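Hey, resending since the last one bounced:
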Amino acid sequence: MIKKITVLFLIAIALTSCVSRKKIVYFQNVSSLSDNNYEPKVQPDDEVLIIVNVTSPNEALAAPFNQSSVVNLTPGAGAGQSGEGRTYRVDKDGFIQLPLVGSIKLGGLSRQQALEELNKEVKKYISNPIITLRVTNFKFTVLGEVKLPGTYTYPGERLTLPEALGLAGDLTVYGKRNNVLVIRDLSGKKTYNYIDLTKVDFMQSEFYYLSQNDLIYIEPNKTAVNSSATGRDLTIAISSLSVIIAIISIITR
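The structure tokens again:
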């Protein structure tokens, strides 16, 4: 009698803890994946490192563009020295203040387009300049059911949603993989999308590659919610079962 009750109790626990494979495994229809050509765009609040070099022996020609002593006067924009070159913060309207050149708009441009724009303006002062541009402060935040929630700074310009989740330690077993929320700020306007990581289709979404200051939220699944709500009840149930087994043991002696 006692063994039957114990076995039934264990079976009940096992059944409630079962999770469908389809809710756990990522990228289940990967064979349907097609190309997704993506180019990140320069955005307000980006910090861009710009290095100007020259092919001629006179390196002094590039000095005004690289010296940290030159102050960026764009309202709301900051500048600083980061090794060779100079770092500029893109203001809310997408502009930076480049020495000699003045205001130049990079916001909304791809890296290649920004380089072409810089090259066009710098050429007015230097023949055949060699310009390097890199975003240095790509930030995103991951909250919810991940192992390492928090705000992260990424040194590159192209970061995918799976890569961001990898930096956050991946989802816990309690995270909903088919309902990942990504919140994005586009020029002060909030937009969002729900991503299903169990299907490869999301790799074609505009939210596959992250943008500056994206927020990723992993919702807890039913197991986590139920565990939080019934954890204490389960402890009580186990204690009650122990008492019942003890009583039955005494009665059946």
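The two ends are 12 Å apart (CA to CA).

Sorry for the duplicate.
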